[in-house]
Amino acid sequence: MRISGVPAHPAARPTDAERVRSILAAAHSMTVVTDGLRTEVRHLDGTDPMGRLHLHPAEPGGDAELRPALRLEFTDVAPTPVRDRVRARVTVLGRLLTPYSDHPNGPGGSGESTGSTCVEFGQAVLETADGFSYVGLHELDAARPDPLAPYEAGMLTHLLDDHADLVTLLLRLVQPLPTAALVRALPVAMDRYGITLRLEERRGHRDVRLPFPSPLDDVDQSGAQIQALFSAARRRSHRNTLPA
Fold first, then answer.
1. Concatenated DSSP letters for 194-244?
2. Which helix (H) or strand (E) holds 159?
3. 189, 196, 193, 149: which is closest to 170 by C-alpha?
4. Has residue 24 got a pLDDT over 80?
5. DSSP 8-state code for residue 192
6. Phi, psi at residue 145, to the nearest 5°?
7. 152-235: which CATH topology?
8. DSSP state of 49
9. CATH 3.20.180.10 region(s) of the chain?
10. pLDDT (mean) for 22-45
């Protein structure tokens, strides 16, 4: 069960199109559905699938119904052991204009990507705990992946595994303050705008965004911005600690 508790002044956050691009950029795998077949494509690390898909606007009429439908499915899983680890799902819908290069009966049938594919783009669907949103081709083209997306998993696991005391320190910045029902707090996400903590309580959880002093333009800026959050937390007079 998710506990409602949006901060009084919600921090800036990525647009839906930026979130989609970031999820795709950091994806380790995807599921491809075409010609009635589902194929698991692996080894996407460091390779944005959008670099291998040439997206074209849909044209009304014509022989669209004769083109094979294409469905790409991505799952965004939190790298830390939080409750409800699936943070989002992205589905890209379209129709093939050229044969899909990872088709099991074509080149790359081993499940590894080997080429590019032209796709008549339908829409991208973003599913989160807040519901569904739909992203068009113009929005997707204009958006850029978050600069932290390829590094987020390593940064969050390093913070939790090697600096758990600093996660506790960040609780001083949470408003409203955590209650005695708090069981644990874990970092669940990080983007150019800040860090998100998941506060797990006895009967549910809520996410709290802690904004950086200013949005990042490059991953090299992350160290200074994260340290700024720690410094702000140390200046807070109250102290929040996790239950023993």
1. EEEEEEEETTEEEEEEEE-SS--SSGGGHHHHHHHHHHHHHH-SS------
2. helix 152-162
3. 196
4. yes
5. T
6. -60, 150
7. Split barrel-like (3.20.180)
8. G
9. 152-235
10. 88
pTM of the model: 0.84
Q: Which of 79-88, 103-112, 195-204, 210-219 has the lowest mean pLDDT?
A: 103-112
How many whole angstroms separate alpha carbon 13 and alpha carbon 240?
Answer: 25
Rounded Cα distance between 36 and 183, Å, is 45
Q: How far apart are CA 185 and CA 124, in angstroms?
A: 32
Per-residue pLDDT reduced to its tens digit, 155-174: 999 999 999 999 999 999 99
CA distances from 57 to 40, 114, 118, 132 (A): 26, 24, 11, 22
In this prediction, residue 244 carries a pLDDT of 39
Is domain 16-142 classified as CATH 1.10.490?
no
CA distance 170 to 81: 18
